[in-house]
Task: structure prediction
Amino acid sequence: MEYTNSNPSPVKEYILSVLARNRAGVLLRIAGLFSRRCYNILSIVAAQTEDTEYSRILIVVSGDDRIVRQVDKQLSKLIDIVQVDVLEREKIVEREHLLLKVERTLQTSEKLVEIANIFHANILNVEPDSMILELTGDAGTINSFIELYNPYNVLRILRTGAMAMPK
Amino acid sequence: MLLTGAQIVMECLLEQGVDTVFGYPGGAVLNIYDALYEYRDRINHVRTAHEQGASHAADGYARSTGKTGVCIATSGPGATNLVTGIATAYMDSVPLVAITGNVNLNLLGLDSFQEVDITGITMPITKHNYIVKDINDLADTLREAFQIAGSGRKGPVLVDIPKDITAQTCEYERKMPLPPLPHDFPIEDRFRQALEMIARAERPFLYCGGGVISSEAEEELRVFAKRLDAPVACSLMCQGGFDQADPRYMGMLGMHGTNTAALAIKNCDLFVAVGTRFSDRVLCNAGLFARHCPIIQIEIDTAEFNKNIEVQLKVKGDAKEVLERFNRLLPQQSHPQWMEQVDAWKKEFPLRQEPKTPNGVTPQQVIETLDRLTDDDALICTEVGQNQMWAAQFYTYRKPRTFISSGGLGTMGFGLGAAIGAKIANPQKTVVNIAGDGSFHMNCAELATAAAYHVPIVELILNNEVLGMVRQWQKLFYENRFSQTDVDPTTNFPALAEAFGLKAYTIETADQVEPVLREALSQNGPVLIDCRIDPDINVLPMVPAGASVESPILEMDN
Result:
């Protein structure tokens, strides 16, 4: 019998919810770990929790199953980290915040507003030649929203990265 | 009682039972050094020639005793000079607390004189680090530092203390050291699965790493090896963790392991690994390592499971505790045919070096003679390169903590400082640093420390006048293009040693080896031996890059 290394599972996105002591440098420790172990951070959101002693950090990583288990264990070794949970997409609510600036012309104006309405996006600002839209949703919704605006010359995008909470 | 920050540092060291520290004074640690003067009857401070030497000395102190080593350096360059030593300790899981001074709080972040962000710099090479910005946190921070350094998989912790914190005062109350942080113990089912795998095995292979030594599991390992009735190979970090005079011992496994270990791994049907992280120097080609048999890995750091190689059964826990439990559960196994086969390989493939000239000296002769002339308690330190591999191959280590070497980081210049630290920790034991001329050159200034503190170590330089290990690779893979490895040496090592105040000897012929070693070992002070060896003696066996650990090169043409 051959004990080959099992084939890596497909690369996908995982959301890690990390509870950390709210000490100086904790974000640097996390970011440094990702960088030196060659793991990819797609997005990171960090803020104090209801208890100001702790921070909650949501990290979206891309990798196969083995990489994510490694990330989990290596993160758990950091002294300031209290707990790491790899969230399962079906068992969480996920939200991300997007600001999108798109080119506006007389011809496209109506179309731009129409798309915004479909997504219940807010129109934050309108200039003669551009428009800023705001949307909150899960990564999938945000991605389709951006895709629909792409033909109209998207000028700038700001995404916060995913926030997620187990149900 | 009201104490200054510097006095609190001293008290916290005493709480931990620290009586020896290694360091180098400077502006930002003036208060700490003033307190060291005050506490000089209780804390022995050894001033090295360079902060790097202090870090290696603290490391050698820790490796040879199992206690946490302590080094102190000033801010800026003092702190950065510790970096190689801290990284060395980190890679080999050595408990170390490094205390650095920094500039005053109000000067932090302003590129002040001798300011450096040492917590930022050492983040990837410490288990944890701190900068203390409030004197009320100082004592607890130091206590935590020792707790973290000595818990679970051990390692270095750095505490950076701005100068004004060491001058301020606050109430101090003596406390007991914190208990080690809790670690995992395997679930019962893992033992059951392991026992089933062992029961099925006809040709088990027992492989041990540094975790055996750091958890002090040598006795449990001895019993387990016998119970499993398996041959044993050790990593470089486990030299001495298993008695090498035991007939079960096959030698090292890995890039410069024995052919017996290579043949055994090729033919085994179960691979049991204890306290090891499967470094690339052991795996060689990970895809070709023990792929025909299941692997059981016993390891305290769960992040080491499935990191470098996928294993079939993970048993998380401290090597000593896990082996103890196995020894209670495991019935006596019996594999006489397998053991006979391994024994036959051992006889067929001994490690052997031939002199290149009549009466020429081989490292094998030197180290085996040293082995004969020293007792089982002698501490053998090494530098890095050929000298290190020969020291591992030809000396018979019978007890843990007798082989002190930079394995993971491979730090040339480590050995001399480490030997000084080890000797200071173990004044009654013989301490020899086996060096190469290249490594010796790196930190030879530490001879000054050995001389100043009358530390009777033997600095044994296997002098082939080349950077032998790199040169060996150039022979194998770069068509003998000896780029920068055979720069004509001009240093007269014995004269240099004498200038530092050491007694010096030279060995040039085979018949000088024993008498010179004998005399050097009998001196009551530091000595240096310049032992001339041929530049073309190679470290063999050798697994070339990318090849399987099962097929080492046994011979080289030149």
